[in-house]
Amino acid sequence: MKFMKIGTKPDTFYTEEATRTVISDIPSDLTIRINNVCFLLHKVPLVPKCGLLQRLYSASDDSNIVTLDLHDVPGGEDAFELCAKFCYGITINLSAHNFVPAFCAAKFLRMVESIEKGNFVLKLEAFFNSCILEGWKDSIVTLQTTIKLPEWSENLGIIRRCIDSIVEKILTPTAKVSWSYTYTRPGYNKKQHQSVPKDWWTEDISDLDIDLFRCIITAVRSTYIPPPQLIGEALHVYACRWLIDTTKTRLPHSSGSQTEESKEKSRRILESIVSMIPADRGSVSIGFLLKLLSIANYLGVSPVTKTELIRKAGLQFEEATLNDILFPSQLSTDQHYYDIDLVAAVLGSYLVLWRRQSPAPTENIHYLRSIRKTGNLIDSYLQVVARDVNMPISKLVSLAEALPDVAREGHDVLYKAINIYLKEHPDVSKADKKRLCRMLDCQKLSPEVRSHAVKNERLPLRMVVQVLFFEQESGSRATTHKPKFSTRARQEQPEAGAEAKQESDNKLQREGIKSRVPETSERDFQKRLEAKTARGESEKGKEMRGEANSSSKVMDPKQVFQRRSSR
């Protein structure tokens, strides 16, 4: 920061209650009243340097003591005192912090060259041009101080010239950046980095008011086309500087942590940030968008802003990680901890966009991988939120069923989530258990998970019978279609192997239609199993039955049904 010292005399001003005066052997003959403060000064040297005082003095009575009211002086009593000290020749230190009120007050008092040579306005303009506009942080501090005198600063061109200076430095090639700047990213060490980072300017301008920050960003984007990620980084830094983080813990609504006034300011900041996010996908991370969405829920922003955030987050949802979506609900009406409704809203937006893709999403390998990745993310999320003892089963089921069948190549992760929920909620009703388990497809469970499901006492009987039925049918098919290795078959093996390889390569594209084990009653399962057993005994020979028994050790579904029914 640069300073300029003007004047040589010691400071003889002193304040006594609401009166400010200067120590002098000459009695005061000029009284200036500003708001609730009274200045007891002298006509000389003030009047000769101030055009306004000359006009007001000439219009006053010819009494020995003249009283003037200057309640509308910009910057108030402190700015006027700087001007008065300049008139007395008292030393004052000018900096970016006090330049704006001093300059506006000097202009108001008409301390210009036409009144007296070497006047205050001339010296202030010299300091502004040679020091403030040439400096990086000086320009930012000066621009920030204009918020107290916006109209004067705008009319005098201070805001425009500061913005031009800041933008010019932002657009300077990084190799030519020679001034001091603030850069405190985690893990960054200036001494270890010879080159200047491209986003070197983002932290310093985050100190500005949101309206001034917007002016800077708008000016940068209108001057040249910066990388969208650079603008996104500036927005991210500004949000971290001014917005409360709601993704780490649940904030109490009844406490005085944020007054309504500060909440309103935060809402204005968040809505401005959202409006400035570049349209380019990837300009900001999905984690940042979800964080803004969580903050928006807490602050209660406008529906337009929230809808726009959900739309932008939906565009990039496939890039999200589990940590990105694990944030607490900030609604006072929610007893559960995790904000599952917000995740469901973003997932819904993602699915709307996914289904609009052309060609059909299931026929395109990229879209199929995208939905599979998202499906795995949601199932992993369900495992975490299932541990919440206050999580309603309706919200868990709703989120799980929102995914299309093709999103899950396997149901192992979904099974684990359901098992966790049943374990953490032992009082769940039979109807709700069936509601949970009807989402599972036995054919998409691995042998290890099916083995666990058969022994799982938390599952409803229907689910266990379905798993056993599928196990028996799988064993029967494997036995019935056991290959006979003839000479001709061995000759056809290379061709069959090539076909299998081709089939494996096209696996993702062929999948997309889910087949379920029919949901029938336990009695239907019994009848089918008994008929199948009788038919198998009449058709199979002793040797074949021996092979079937040796190749499958699955428990008889009929025995399981009778055992579970007797409890």
Describe what is shown at a glance.
The protein has 567 residues and is mainly α.
The percentage helix is 55-70%
Oligomer: single chain
Number of strands: 7
- Count of alpha/pi helices: 27
Shape: elongated
Radius of gyration: 38 Å
Protein name: NPH3 domain-containing protein
Domain NPH3: 199-474
Region (Disordered): 476-567
Family: Belongs to the NPH3 family.
Explained architecture:
This protein is mainly alpha-helical and 567 residues long. It contains 27 helices and 7 strands. It has a 5-stranded mixed beta sheet with strand order 2-3-5-4-6, covered by helices on one side. A two-stranded antiparallel sheet has the order 1-7. Residues 484-522 and 532-554 have low confidence and may be disordered. Pfam families: NPH3. This is NPH3 domain-containing protein.
Jot down its keywords.
mainly alpha, 567 residues, 56% helix, five-stranded mixed sheet, single chain
Blueprint (SSEs and pairs):
Layout: E1 4-6, E2 13-16, E3 19-22, E4 30-34, E5 37-41, H1 43-49, H2 51-58, E6 66-69, H3 76-88, E7 92-94, H4 99-108, H5 120-132, H6 136-145, H7 150-155, H8 158-170, H9 202-205, H10 210-223, H11 228-242, H12 260-276, H13 286-299, H14 303-315, H15 322-325, H16 340-355, H17 365-385, H18 393-402, H19 412-424, H20 430-437, H21 447-454, H22 461-480, H23 487-505, H24 507-510, H25 522-539, H26 542-551, H27 557-565
Helix pairs in contact: 1-2, 3-4, 4-5, 6-8, 8-10, 10-12, 11-12, 12-13, 13-14, 14-16, 16-18, 17-19, 22-27
